[in-house]
Design brief:
246 residues, 12 strands, 30% helix, alpha+beta, 31% strand
Length: 246
């Protein structure tokens, strides 16, 4: 059964944050389906990937993937919680390998002392400044100025006015705020600047969307620790490499 509204997707997935983020408010180009208790959402160019986000019992999810994948471009990657992704590898011939990473989310705003509002805020027309910081501190960042879906950047400034940390409101949707492009100047790491900019953005996006999420590499334990201290819950996820359903 194809789902045509945000309300249908929310009911089918029990308002799961990952699936609701994938649905992106059912903007043009998004498609969603349900089969039994399984749900799949096809999201083109979401966080720089064509994603087929799947949730539900493995057997039903595999049936759903096999049914919908022929309708999608070959660039789509299946994304699911890691246990489900591992089961799908055995049920979908030709799929894999599994690429693990971490999804993190919260609906609880960080406490005010974590926000650092006196030195943190949204940046206006500062793309060149943000790009320079990312080039030095996070050259492999998925979010960079100018990409579709990047709405705005927040930053922390040192006493001399220089930008020392940044984070983006990127690929958010009405039901879920999303954060990407988190970076701190290399020489100034460990001083809490990254925590401050994240706390500010988390609070802003929770106020606007009710919850906030991000993804982080599994081996980035320092960042995961920061996000956990800001109240985020970790959900291991994985993507399967593109494959043919034929």
């Amino acid at each position: 059964m194809e789902l045509t509204s945000t309300e249908d997707v929310a009911a089918a997935c029990q308002d799961d944050t990952i699936v609701m983020w994938a649905a992106q408010g059912m903007r043009p180009g998004i498609r969603a389906w349900a089969h039994g208790e399984a749900v799949a959402v096809a999201s083109p160019d979401l966080n720089r990937r064509d994603r087929l986000t799947v949730r539900g019992p493995a057997g039903q999810a595999a049936v759903l993937v096999r049914r919908v994948l022929p309708e999608l471009a070959p660039s789509y990657r299946v994304m699911a919680e890691r246990d489900l992704a591992g089961e799908l590898v055995g049920l979908l011939p030709g799929s894999g390998p599994v690429r693990p990473f971490e999804w993190m989310e919260t609906a609880t705003p960080p406490s005010p002392q974590d926000s650092g509002e006196e030195e943190t805020g949204w940046l206006e027309e500062r793309d060149a400044e943000v790009a320079a910081l990312l080039a030095e501190a996070a050259p492999a960042a998925w979010a960079v100025p100018g990409l579709p879906g990047i709405r705005r950047w927040a930053g922390v400034r040192a006493a001399d006015g220089s930008l020392v940390a940044t984070a983006a409101d990127a690929w958010s949707c009405p039901e879920v705020g999303f954060v990407a492009g988190v970076a701190t100047v290399s020489a100034l790491r460990g001083r809490g600047y990254g925590r401050r900019v994240c706390a500010f953005v988390f609070r802003s996006l929770i106020a606007a969307h009710g919850r906030v999420a991000l993804v982080v590499d599994t081996d980035n334990r320092a960042a995961i620790g920061v996000y956990e201290r800001l109240g985020m819950r970790l959900r291991p996820v994985a993507a399967l490499a593109p494959f043919s359903a034929g």
